[in-house]
Design brief:
Elements lengths: L7 E10 L5 E4 L4 H10 L12 E6 L9 E5 L3 E6 L2 H14 L16 E9 L5 E7 L7 H13 L4 E5 L1 E2 L2 E2 L8 H4 L3 E2 L3 E2 L6 E2 L4 E2 L4 H12 L4 E8 L4 H6 L28 H17 L4 E5 L6 H5 L1 H9 L8 H15 L3 E5 L13 E4 L3 H9 L3 E4 L2 H4 L3 E2 L10 E5 L2 H5 L20 E9 L7 H8 L2 H10 L6 H18 L10
Parallel strand pairs: 2-3, 3-5, 7-8, 7-22, 8-15, 15-16, 16-17, 17-18, 18-19, 19-22, 20-21
Antiparallel strand pairs: 1-6, 4-5, 4-6, 9-10, 11-14, 12-13
Helix pairs in contact: 1-2, 3-5, 7-10
Keywords: Glycosidase, Hydrolase
Catalytic activity: Hydrolysis of terminal non-reducing N-acetyl-D-hexosamine residues in N-acetyl-beta-D-hexosaminides
Family: Belongs to the glycosyl hydrolase 20 family.
């Protein structure tokens, strides 16, 4: 009943009863995974050196880097993996093999601490298995972000992509640029309904994360094998930044507030030196907070009409030999890619920015429009994260039933739609994250945009159980059976309930 389904699981007779005092040993490199397992089994459980043993170690060279091997016998549990990432995944399998009541150690009765005997050999289909959470449209409490990290780790997702800036809010503290959070983190009200609505709620909204809060989140996620990938939108979706520093735009004499509408603002960053230096500073400070190898720089939905009338943009285009100021878009993103490379990082942008082969082949792209665009980008030499909106944008409603909460209009994305999504459709290779020069599909991820999700409870409703289905598409090899998945999901829902991952609205299955 594990989600995502393991590569191979063979049950055996018997069970390993977890004693009140735990004989847990960790080889070199396995200490953090052992610490995580200890926390899941109850932080007050003392460690001893006698009795039935649980042993974690690095080994298993014949498994992929994120794979693991697990053997549960009545007297011993052995978890091995070629790298720490695999040990983290094995710990999550042990967590799911517990009775659901044990997932909250504070309330678990004594008789639930047991694992069924089994042998597991398991490895992921794709190296990047992510969830994007938009905290720019609606700020989410840090405590919820930690809960969410722990829940996606349970499903063997290894990336939380935080959408930190947009037209409607700036959520990351940049100490050199205090007005970004003093001004850019707050808007006067929010639109009610989809983009283009004429209704507003009249309620101020805002908030931001200090560098310390974000570093704490990064450390919390790292202890669970999850990497936090930050996103700083540029050169479009920048209205919050321009509200704080109008001189960064294309009409520095005009001051505009943080945008209170949904959709796409025409106000974008300029391409003059001050705007470029601003972006370089922000990226440098962001890289200091987030050790992730990747930093997302947005790049999508960037109307370039303001550059057409900007003397500075026209001069820049002419100096570069461009015949159209729209060509500055790819140039701008390439400049930021170079900046990140100076800090030892790799840039990601949404694939819409890759219009006519304008971006360097070593730019990683998030393909959000449809799978065909992702396949085309792979053939142009890019590594791609497959995130087509129809199966992976969870801000769309889960059903057309009466009473379904409001979502983005004109589309319903069901649990089955997500489950049947194949990130590798189109005969594309899997990319190697350690070799950015080899094109292919790096992975897939869900998108949780929050125009229609102002609270953590809304996010929970949109996320589950669809995240369970995407976890399987990202992790599990072989033929998939939707009805068999639903059987496993029925048991898994109780795990989510115990963890507090389900919305007060209930769950759509």
């Amino acid at each position: 009943m594990i989600i995502p389904r393991p590569t191979a699981l063979t049950p055996h007779p018997g069970e390993f009863v977890i004693p009140p005092a735990l004989n847990l040993s960790a080889g070199k490199g396995a200490e953090r995974a052992a610490g995580l397992l200890t926390a899941y089994l109850g932080p007050d459980r003392p460690r001893v050196t006698y009795g039935p043993r649980v042993r974690l170690s690095l080994g298993e060279p014949d498994l992929p880097r994120q794979g693991y091997a697990l053997r549960i016998d009545p007297g011993e549990v052995v978890l091995t993996a070629p790298a720490e990432e695999g040990l983290f995944h094995g710990v999550q399998t042990l967590r799911q093999l517990l009775p659901a009541a044990a997932l909250d150690p504070r309330t678990a009765p004594p008789d639930v601490w047991r694992w069924p005997c089994a042998t597991v050999r398991d490895a992921p289909r794709l190296p990047w298995r992510g969830v994007m959470l938009d905290v720019a449209r609606h700020h989410m409490p840090p405590e919820f972000l930690q809960e969410f990290v722990d829940q996606i780790a349970l499903h063997k997702f290894n990336v939380l992509h935080l959408h930190l800036t947009d037209d409607q809010g700036w959520r990351i503290e940049i100490e050199d640029l205090p007005r970004l959070t003093e001004v850019g983190a707050w808007r006067a009200e929010s639109m009610v309904g989809p983009a283009g609505s004429t209704r507003f709620d009249g309620t101020p909204h805002g908030g931001y994360y200090t560098c310390r809060t974000l570093r704490d989140l990064v450390a919390y996620a790292e202890r669970r094998g999850v990497t936090i990938v930050p996103e700083i939108e540029m050169p479009g979706h920048a209205r919050a930044a321009l509200a704080a520093y109008p001189h960064l735009g294309n009409d520095p004499e005009v001051t505009r507030p943080v945008w209170s509408s949904w959709g796409v603002s025409e106000d974008i960053l300029g391409v003059h030196d001050e705007a470029l230096e601003f972006c370089r500073t922000v990226l440098a400070r962001t890289a200091e907070v987030f050790p992730s190898r990747y930093v997302h720089i947005g790049g999508e939905e960037c109307p370039t009409t303001q550059w057409e009338t900007s003397p500075a943009a026209r001069r820049r285009a002419a100096s570069l030999g461009f015949t159209d100021t729209a060509q500055l878009h790819g140039w701008f993103l390439s400049q930021m890619q170079d900046t990140l490379a100076e800090h030892g990082r790799r840039a990601i942008c949404w694939d819409e920015a890759e219009r006519n082969g304008e971006l360097p082949a070593d730019m990683t792209l998030t393909a959000w429009r449809d799978p065909a665009h992702g396949v085309r980008s792979v053939r142009r030499g890019h590594q791609v994260i497959m995130a087509p909106y129809r199966p992976t944008y969870f801000d769309y409603a889960q059903s057309a039933r009466p009473g379904e909460p409001a979502g983005q209009p004109d589309l319903v994305t069901t649990l089955e739609d997500v489950y049947r999504f194949d990130p590798l459709a189109g005969d594309v290779p899997i990319a190697d994250p350690l070799d950015g020069r080899r094109p292919g599909v790096l992975g897939t991820q869900a998108q949780l945009w929050t125009e229609f999700a102002p609270t953590p409870d809304h996010v929970r409703y949109l996320a589950y159980p669809r995240l369970c289905a995407l976890a399987e598409a990202a992790w599990s090899e072989g033929t998939r059976d939707y009805e068999e998945f639903r059987d496993r999901l029925a048991a898994h829902i109780e795990r989510l309930r115990v963890l507090g991952a389900l919305s007060a609205r209930g769950v759509m299955v």
